[in-house]
Amino acid sequence: MPFKPADNPKCPKCGKSVYAAEERVAGGYKFHKSCFKCGMCGKMLDSTNVTEHEAELFCKNCHARKYGPKGYGFGGGAGCLSMDTGAHLQGDDIVVNRAPLLAKAIAKAPDGQGCPRCGGYVYAAEQMLARGRAFHKTCFKCGECNKGLDSVNVTEGPDRDIYCKVCYGKKFGPKGYGYGQGGGTLQSDCFAVSDQAPKTTVADTASIKAKPGQGCPRCGGVVFAAEEVLAKGRQWHRKCFKCRDCTKTLDSINACDGPDGDVYCKTCYGKKWGPHGYGFACGSGFLQTDGLTEDEISQSRPFYNPDTTSIKAPPGQGCPRCGGMVFAAEQQLAKGTMWHKKCFNCAECHRPLDSVLACDGPDREIHCRACYGKLFGPKGFGFGHRPTLVCADGTAPAVHDPRPNSGPKAAPGQGCKRCGYAVYAAEQMISKNGQWHKRCFSCHDCNRSLDSTTLNDGPDGEIYCRGCYGRNFGPKGVGFGMGAGTLTMA
């Protein structure tokens, strides 16, 4: 299939293709950034001062000079806006009229496209919107009192005209006793001298039927702006916006849209569409069980089994102790494995554990610190709760090396850097060169116990205190060392 390039819009000014990186939009046309300027004065334009007329761009001043009203009093000065030669005033039958000249007639637009009030074209510089219809700024006024309107006080009537709120209330609002400026403003003549008040009459807008799918979902009538309530993109009458079941008046907080397309209060929505069964609703008698025996009621109750160990997980994915499925509500983590909260206890003393007390042993179980020390800690005199190795003849016991000397060693590069045996989390010390047992974490030369503040990693892979590190790897020569002549050059 031959390659067909994409069609791009053409710039009305230069006729060349306009791409997305350089386009400017005005009046539905796309222009180049360099072509987006006034056609009269050449001023560069933007979205705030551009005015489009028949695919030509103008600044607001030039548009007013070329297409705005002409005559005395229009423009920047007294005589700056009259460019005609006065040929229409050369006749002898000229009648002098001191009234201000009327503006030039506005070109009529096709039906349904122009200003609803005068029918002329509406351009962007003088546009006022009401219900999706564009009015001239001079035509945007009340249909009764001719008061100038804006987006705050405009109200559209059922006759498709626009009114101020006062005139809308007088013309389409409710009529009857008690409405208006005072108590007796709207009184019928037959009740003028009577003590009985006339009945209040309310205009029923439901009688004005709308097109199918466009009116109020409850009554089908036309919804006007003064009585409009919105819910899920649909327009309701204020008097129709109530619960379908209990007829409670709704607002935007307690209204719930049901799956049948109607609106409900939260209580009725829960009763009609919420979960049903034993234990749901406000009280025990919500779900009536009349005519049922106690055995039948107990059989209909849902069965709850709190023991999740009966739900077996795939091998290697469940709780390491019971093998059951571990869900998020009861999950405990230890070394990348998930445990049940009730299973997360010491394997020896069954003490409940947390992330601080838990110690992972080499048997893939978890222990508290005391049980971990008894099972996997160093053995001998001085370790544990009592002196387990005591000489009976009174002689001093032999010094016991606490480092492990039995059992399998760890893989190369994974065990303790000094003894080579596996290092577990409860006794782990870390340096730059690797991990160490807590008992092996001492200076290589003087056997002084180290911590993170006194640790020095040597270039030979061992660890030293600061003094031994300086003696072995520090600078040599006169002036270095403990005294004036301690380190002399040979």
Automatic annotation (TrEMBL):
Name of the protein this chain belongs to: LIM zinc-binding domain-containing protein
KW Metal-binding (keyword) present: yes
Lineage, broadest ranks: Eukaryota, Metazoa, Ecdysozoa, Arthropoda, Hexapoda
Highest taxon of the lineage: Eukaryota
Keywords: LIM domain, Metal-binding, Myogenesis, Nucleus, Repeat, Zinc
Subcellular localization(s) per the UniProt record: Nucleus
Signal peptide: none
Cellular component per GO, a single term: nucleus
Domain LIM zinc-binding: start-end pairs: 9-69, 113-174, 214-275, 317-378, 414-475
UniProt cross-references to PANTHER family, sorted A to Z: MUSCLE LIM PROTEIN MLP84B, RHO-GTPASE-ACTIVATING PROTEIN LRG1
Keyword Metal-binding assigned: yes
GO molecular function: actinin binding; metal ion binding; structural constituent of muscle
Single GO biological process annotation from the record: muscle organ development
One Pfam family of this chain: LIM
